[in-house]
Design goal:
19 helices, globular, 448 residues, Preprotein translocase SecY subunit, two-stranded antiparallel ribbon, single chain, mainly alpha
């Protein structure tokens, strides 16, 4: 029965011409992205670079470069032309989003169509600048690795900066094309497929541990059951929301028409901040290790790196505190209860038992603050799960954390958009049939 339902759903998707074109266009863009992910920038010894990333992953969990390499699907460790991936564009978008919460002029521009177009243009310019800075830094980094660069110097740096910046701009354009003409959010889908590409090698590594005896069959079953439970929990928390009842009273509209009274809900997601608190926390927690790499002989940097190494008690405590803090911080940036209360008041709606306006904004803010706590605790557990399990079983365990949240979130959003397209298609077909019936009755009446 389930197989028949799945087959029916797939057939309905490809019977819808607009949706089929969107899916095919999205797949074509993803194929182009993955082809570029295997074109290495000239002048780099990929073997030496890959060995460095592998050693860093075993010693310190990869650090900041390992986190960046995760989002690009391993392209940074292979020095491909798309090594920077979509990350410069995402970083620029986050900066602009934070500026909208801090600078009143930017906040006003975000509410106007022309202002949003200008902000998008600023985001593109900021992406180019960030990509150029990151590309130049990556060129200096590869030159510091022994044997990674055959001919280091200014010519190599300019060449690397040109290739990586051009690749980042092309990836940004590709993501925008997916968003406009394809299905789903382009930037999120590019990261999604970059992460999914590394799932199969990770599964193969796990089975190799079983063959070598590092993991017993019983431990493998326990880990498999734990993985299923984690995925189910991530799906449940991602979709969970607190619904606030709102009442829309009867109202007289233009030309004497009446709008019927209705009830609706404001869904407040339990995990409003998404994966960003983990990204911010991991970007800060790896700073001591980065200082130790840049200053190998510095005693204080070495001690801090050892103190905050992945798996240590202080690493777990500090990362948990950072995730909790950034969950509240980022939620306060992307969610504005004052604007929500004002829009509700303009529509004539209200929350039963709560006065419209400032009191409504206070009530919504209280609810968001309360539901953010379990969301923050959930993010903390998911982020620290790979570290704790790796320390317990003494083998690398990469299932969970940032990658799992991104994969589940993007998959659910894309499926929701597919369902929305199918519903709109059915609604359009119903309206077209209705218009045909009306026209038929009118022509019949004219004939009489």
């Amino acid at each position: 029965m389930a197989q028949n339902n799945a087959a029916t759903a797939v057939s309905n998707v490809f019977r819808t011409p607009e949706l089929k074109d969107k899916i095919l266009f999205t797949l074509l863009c993803l194929v182009v992205y993955r082809v570029g992910a295997h074109i290495t920038a000239p002048g780099v010894d990929v073997v030496a670079l890959t060995d460095f990333f592998r050693n860093q992953s075993q010693q310190s969990g990869g650090g900041l470069l390992g986190l960046y390499d995760l989002f690009t699907g391993g392209q940074l460790s292979r020095a491909t032309v798309f090594a920077l991936g979509i990350m410069p564009y995402i970083s620029a978008s986050i900066f602009v989003q934070i500026a909208g919460a801090v600078v009143p002029q930017v906040e006003k521009m975000q509410k106007d169509e022309e202002g949003r177009k200008r902000i998008n243009q600023w985001t593109r310019y900021a992406t180019v600048v960030l990509a150029l800075v990151q590309a130049w830094g990556f060129a200096l980094f590869t030159e510091s690795l022994q044997g990674a660069i055959a001919n280091p110097g200014m010519a190599f740096r300019l060449q690397m900066a040109f290739f990586l910046t051009t690749g980042a701009i092309f990836v940004m354009w590709l993501g925008e094309q997916i968003t406009e003409r394809g299905l789903g959010n382009g930037a999120s889908l590019l990261i999604f497929f970059s992460i999914v590409e590394r799932v199969w090698p990770g599964i193969g590594t796990t089975f190799r541990f079983v063959n070598t005896g590092a993991i017993g069959p019983l431990s493998l079953l326990v880990l498999g059951a734990l993985m299923v439970a984690v995925v189910a929990a991530v799906v449940a928390i991602t979709m969970a929301s607190r619904r606030i009842l709102i009442q829309i009273p009867q109202r007289t509209m233009a030309r004497g028409r009446m709008r019927e009274a209705a009830r609706s809900f404001i869904p407040l997601r339990l995990n409003t901040a998404g994966v960003m608190p983990i990204v911010f926390a991991q970007s800060i927690i790896v700073v001591p290790g980065a200082f130790a790499q840049f200053f190998p002989g510095h005693e204080l940097a070495t001690r801090l790196s050892e103190l905050f190494a992945p798996g240590t008690v202080w690493y777990i405590i500090i990362e948990a505190i950072l995730i909790m803090f950034f969950t509240y911080f980022y939620t306060s940036i992307i969610f504005n209860p004052i604007d929500l209360a004002e829009n509700l008041k303009k529509q004539g709606g209200f929350i039963p038992g709560v006065k419209p306006g400032a009191r409504t904004a206070e009530y919504i803010d209280q609810v968001v603050s309360r539901i953010t706590l379990p969301g923050a605790i959930f993010l903390t557990v998911i982020a620290l799960l790979p570290v704790i399990i790796s320390r317990a079983v003494n083998v690398p365990f990469v299932f969970g954390g940032t990658s799992l949240l991104i994969v589940v979130g993007v998959a659910l959003d894309t499926l929701a958009q597919v369902q929305q397209h199918l519903l709109l298609r059915k609604y359009d077909g119903f309206m077209k049939k209705g218009r045909l019936k009306v026209r038929g009755s009118q022509s019949a009446a004219g004939g009489f």
